[in-house]
Amino acid sequence: MKIHVNTGGPVATNGYLIVDETTGMAAVVDAPYSTVAPLLNIAAHHNYQITQLLLTHGHWDHIADHQVVTDSCPQAAVLIHRLDEPKLIRPISLFMALPFVIPSRKATGYLEDGQKLQVGKLEFHVLFTPGHSPGHVALYCPAEGMLLAGDLLFAGSIGRTDLPDSNPRDMAASLARVLKLPDETDVRSGHGPPTTIGAERRTNPWLEHL
Ligand SMILES: [Zn+2]
Ligand SMILES: [Zn+2]
Question: Which residue, 42, 47, 201, 51, is CA-closest to 122?
Fold first, then answer.
């Protein structure tokens, strides 16, 4: 697997291009504002075929560039958990005025707990991890020991639970769930640098009470 990341938008959100190099199939994971075009250029340069846009949740900073993906890759499925689709249909910011407009759209399909997704020969397991938002998911690739954590877990921190659509109790359960993954699991978050489950279990102050 090859991972490209591009960070941007008003709150420095990470967008990812995940590539199965054996087949040339790829997926975009989250679409932060003004971050997707460079990732699509990488894909075009290598002739990767983007089969999916996978959205960890529906907050504006993770969906803003969705149309950039579908304009360039109309065949790519746009997948999100059903409980966060309303924010894709009616994109809004819960805590700040946005200097741009996010187009409305419906998902082409849904991410559900336990679902297995193929990106070429890479298999991702969908983990339903509500709390930061009601329909938040993380994507776990067991063969590569990699977790795309969205806004569930960050290096040294966790996703906000003070937003109108957050639920701190659900968040605690979702964090406890991913902390059961192996120590060496490579965690790629929606904000900030990569980390591992082991490093966060040992040092993240937000996880002490779990
Ligand atoms: Zn968020
Ligand atoms: Zn975010």
Answer: 51
